[in-house]
Design goal:
single chain, alpha/beta, Rossmann fold, nine-stranded mixed sheet, five-stranded mixed sheet, binds S-adenosylmethionine, transferase, SAM-dependent MTase RsmB/NOP-type domain-containing protein, NSUN5_RCM1_N, RNA binding
């Protein structure tokens, strides 16, 4: 089969629909001061409405820090809004770094900063093309080569995967198409399947790094996950005609769903479910049979969840705070997936342009995550298995939360997630959390070429059994209580209020972080 260069690669459907080819200008960036005369510029061509609207919403989101989802939803003439704006916001750290690196603010003072960022996003992370010939579009096109080089530099220098560009992972929607059907369809689209077998995970990863532009592979761990080269990103961003049969989802996001392993006809609760990528994967694993209660409290995200869940009869969506969901509302729940809000520090863009660690924010997030996980363990008497996952690389949100819940919930124990996965996995949690770290899994960009992800699997203990972390903590507690009482008496004497409103997990997190600080000071 012919090897097609990625820049040539256009989804078949698009080839049919396309009636105009974009021709980038070849001239160099403007003289530097943005002071071309009116005559030189010619008649004013309006900026496409979608770009103008994206500028408006991106600015509101970033400058005013407002939730723009409801605004976009109401905007009936901005159907692509969520995708377009979402793309800018999720790539913002890299876009800002590139905007600064190219000194666009000083070189193109007449070019609106937000518009520049939207255009950069479309060029580098969207379709790879810009629409129309308005002045800002033409101006940005003159920087195209420099923009792409800047992105390559950032990715090469800061890529958490080293010099390797992360692949494009694509999940087959097995509710519509089986694996063989997917392979046939992709062959029609001129993709070549690499049909080698791998005895170990590392040799698979090495082959992924060498994928040619027209090649793809079936994943080593998950049969419904396909792996394409990085260069396939623009193909998949444009492959609208395949969007119901294939889901753009990172491989790491399948760890929690595969670890939960709900058989068909089981009853599942997805506590924090929007936009619903894991929910729909669970539905596929269950062959769309049984019941999945998918809970989401955010109105706009709930709307998105409903959209994603359409076509999956097994999913029942509930708009609510999952801490208020009772057993009566979701009768007979046996399996719980908890994938709550987190710092998102495992996301690629965040790893490329790292933000300073905000301990206070992590501390608050860990407290919430602890509450949610405790609710999963205590509110639903029939639950036998729980998977907790985050896309955070911070122990405080991961092993820290797991330790907190195990200490206070003897009736659930932590399973060895590597064993549960049943196939070789490279990274586990920190050995600092004895009896916990080695049982939890991490997906790491540098090794797995995925986003960063953490997953822990809990199982209800048999009647009369309690987990060993709980037992050890109970033993420790006596001396701990004595010290706490002493401290409280001392505080009272000093006229202070010794009451704390922290959750136990937050208390432990605080203890741990101050002990780390003490250790650092000693060093
Ligand atoms: C990390 S995202 C979930 C992603 C989702 N599992 C997926 O794979 O598509 C976390 C979601 O949980 C929602 N959320 C956070 N706290 C919640 C709560 N107490 N009740 C319901 N939803 C909550 C957030 O609004 C957000 O949509």
């Amino acid at each position: 089969m012919r090897n097609v260069c990625p820049s040539e690669r256009i989804p078949v459907q698009e080839k049919i629909q396309k009636n105009e080819k974009f021709k980038p200008t070849t001239s160099a960036p403007s003289s530097g001061k943005g002071n071309d005369t009116k005559e030189q510029r010619g008649p004013k061509i309006p900026i496409p409405t979608n770009y103008r609207k994206a500028v408006k919403y991106v600015r509101i989101a970033v400058e005013e820090k407002r939730n723009i989802q409801p605004l976009i939803e109401k905007d009936k003439h901005f159907r692509v809004g969520r995708t377009l704006v979402g793309r800018v916001l999720s790539n913002m750290p890299v876009i800002e770094a590139i905007y600064k690196q190219l000194e666009l603010a000083s070189k193109e003072p007449r070019l609106n900063e937000w518009l520049a960022k939207v255009l950069i996003s479309e060029l580098l992370f969207g379709s790879g093309r810009l629409v129309g010939n308005s002045l800002p579009v033409e101006c940005m096109m003159r920087y195209e080569a420099q923009l792409r080089t800047a992105l390559t530099d950032i990715e090469a220098k800061k890529s958490p995967a080293g010099n390797v560009k992360e692949p494009r992972f694509v999940r087959i929607n097995t509710n519509l198409l089986n694996v063989e059907g997917a392979k046939r369809l992709l062959a029609e689209e001129q993709w070549n399947l690499v049909e080698e077998t791998f005895t170990d995970y590392r040799s698979f990863l090495e082959r992924v790094k060498k994928l040619g532009d027209a090649e793809y592979m079936q994943d080593y761990h998950f049969p419904d996950m396909l792996v394409f080269p990085h260069s396939a990103k623009s193909y998949w961003a444009r492959a609208q005609h395949l969007s119901d049969k294939f889901v753009l989802q990172n491989k790491a996001c399948l760890l929690p769903t595969y670890l939960l392993k709900p058989p068909k006809k089981s009853v599942v609760l997805d506590m924090c479910s929007a936009p619903g990528l894991k929910t729909t994967h669970l539905a596929c694993l269950m062959k769309n049979k049984g019941r999945i209660y998918a809970v989401e409290y955010d109105r706009a995200r709930y709307a998105l969840l409903c959209e994603y869940a359409r076509g999956f009869g097994v999913i029942k969506t509930i708009q609510s705070d999952c801490l208020e969901v009772t057993d009566e509302q979701v009768p007979g729940v046996q399996y719980v997936l908890l994938d709550p809000s987190c710092s998102g520090s495992g996301m690629l863009q965040r790893q490329m342009v790292p933000e300073p660690i905000d301990e206070d924010r992590l501390y608050k997030l860990a407290g919430l995550q602890y509450k949610l996980l405790s609710h999963a363990m205590n509110a639903f008497p029939h639950v036998r298995r729980i998977v907790y996952s985050t896309c955070s690389v911070h122990e405080m949100e991961n092993e820290g939360v797991v330790q907190g819940v195990l200490r206070h919930n003897g009736h659930f124990r932590l399973l060895d997630a590597r064993k549960e996965l049943g196939k070789e996995w490279l990274n586990v949690g920190s050995p600092e959390y004895a009896g916990i770290g080695e049982r939890c899994l991490y997906a790491k960009t540098v090794d797995d070429l995925t986003i960063g992800m953490f997953a822990a699997v809990f199982e209800r203990c048999p009647e009369g059994v309690v987990n060993e972390v709980y037992v050890a903590y109970e033993k420790q507690k006596h001396s701990y209580d004595v010290v706490a009482q002493k401290m409280s008496r001392q505080k009272k004497r000093e006229g202070q209020n010794g009451q704390s409103e922290d959750t136990p997990a937050q208390h432990e997190v605080q203890e741990k972080s101050s002990s780390k600080k003490r250790k650092k000071n000693r060093e």
